[in-house]
């Protein structure tokens, strides 16, 4: 199928195909030939071209700025379109991007934590200046209650309190998530009052590249699919939530925050909100996978794995909160 897509829409870019590190939402393939390389992405979980068009509008605006790191560059197809619909009955879309040199860091490797913070701060600064006519398609995190129509509040609470037999081993973990969900729902209105702007919304180890010969340096930030307008402090909160539970957690967060603060400083209100926003991120991930389970996209064992991981994330956050709040004020204010 990949070769058929290339020959039909990008005939100059045909070549050997190698499977890439595909995520939950997309399929990735690397295309190699003797002259150049590219990356194909197939969007698996939606059929909405407007989502892709907004992502590309943001990338186009960022391309006009002088950034110290690379971002994805779409390659237009023969007729000029940047996203083409796959003719296999699935109505999915595919896009081609220029290949970016670099390596993916290991999830517990904190060598690039300071550089990750620098590049995240630089991106926040750049996104604040982006000129994009299209309206964001993805909702902000604080619209949690409207973002997952298949997961009503009543259904989620009932599921966590009385889980199906497949989830009996996750009873304690689900009660942890239920408590976090109730707490976050009560805080959504206050979160809206924080400063807002465009944010990437999904920065983590899987969405960055580092220099292959200098693993301390981030060279690219990837996957702007979920870019939207949200509270500014959500950007560092998402990254920091990804450090929970890793080896050298405290040092990773300290280095990231120092790098971030070299470009962007946050207000007292934003800093106070970061642990809350981290909990919001974890709850959102739970609802994302819960929704995929309800809609039949994932089997139950995928949700079980996520429930266990997210419950552990909440426990790590609770154990780390006191020193984390001090660290955030020391570095970000």
From TrEMBL:
Give the protein's recorded name. Answer: Aminoglycoside phosphotransferase
Where is the secretion signal located?
none
Coiled coil region boundaries: none
Q: Which domain of life is it from?
A: Bacteria
Concerning InterPro entries, the annotation shows:
Aminoglycoside_PTrfase, Kinase-like_dom_sf, Pseudomonas-type_ThrB
Which terms does the record give in the GO molecular function aspect? amino acid kinase activity
Q: Show the stretches that span the lipid bilayer.
A: none
Family indicated by similarity: Belongs to the pseudomonas-type ThrB family.
A Pfam family (short name) is APH
Which organism does this record belong to? Paenibacillus solani
Q: Which UniProt keywords apply?
A: Transferase
Q: Where is the Aminoglycoside phosphotransferase domain?
A: 21-259
């Amino acid at each position: 199928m990949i070769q058929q897509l290339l020959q039909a829409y990008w005939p100059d870019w045909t070549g050997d195909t190698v499977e890439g590190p595909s995520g939950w939402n997309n399929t990735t393939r690397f295309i190699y030939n003797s002259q150049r390389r590219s990356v194909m992405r197939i969007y698996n979980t939606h059929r909405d071209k407007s989502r892709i068009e907004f992502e590309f509008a943001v990338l186009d605006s960022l391309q006009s700025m002088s950034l110290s790191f690379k971002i994805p560059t779409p390659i237009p197809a023969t007729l000029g379109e940047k996203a083409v619909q796959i003719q296999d009955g699935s109505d999915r879309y595919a896009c081609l991007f220029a290949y970016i040199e670099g390596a993916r860091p290991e999830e517990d490797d904190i060598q690039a934590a300071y550089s990750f913070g620098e590049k995240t701060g630089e991106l926040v600064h750049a996104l604040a200046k982006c000129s994009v006519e299209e309206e964001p398609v993805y909702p902000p995190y604080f619209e949690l209650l409207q973002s997952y129509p298949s997961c009503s509040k009543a259904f989620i609470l009932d599921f966590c309190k009385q889980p199906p037999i497949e989830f009996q081993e996750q009873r304690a973990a689900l009660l942890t998530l239920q408590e976090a969900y109730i707490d976050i729902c009560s805080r959504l209105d206050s979160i809206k009052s924080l400063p807002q702007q465009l944010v990437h919304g999904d920065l983590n180890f899987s969405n960055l590249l580092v220099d292959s010969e200098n693993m301390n340096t981030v060279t690219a930030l990837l996957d702007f699919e979920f870019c939207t307008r949200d509270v500014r402090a959500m950007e560092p909160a998402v990254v920091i939530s990804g450090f929970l539970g890793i080896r050298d957690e405290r040092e990773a967060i300290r280095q990231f925050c120092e790098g971030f603060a070299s470009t962007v400083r946050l207000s007292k209100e934003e800093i106070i909100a970061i642990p809350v926003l981290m909990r919001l991120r974890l709850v959102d991930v739970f609802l994302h996978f819960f929704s995929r389970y309800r809609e039949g996209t994932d089997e139950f064992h995928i949700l079980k794995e996520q429930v266990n991981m997210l419950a552990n994330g909440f426990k790590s956050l609770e154990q780390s909160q006191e020193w984390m709040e001090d660290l955030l004020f020391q570095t970000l204010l």
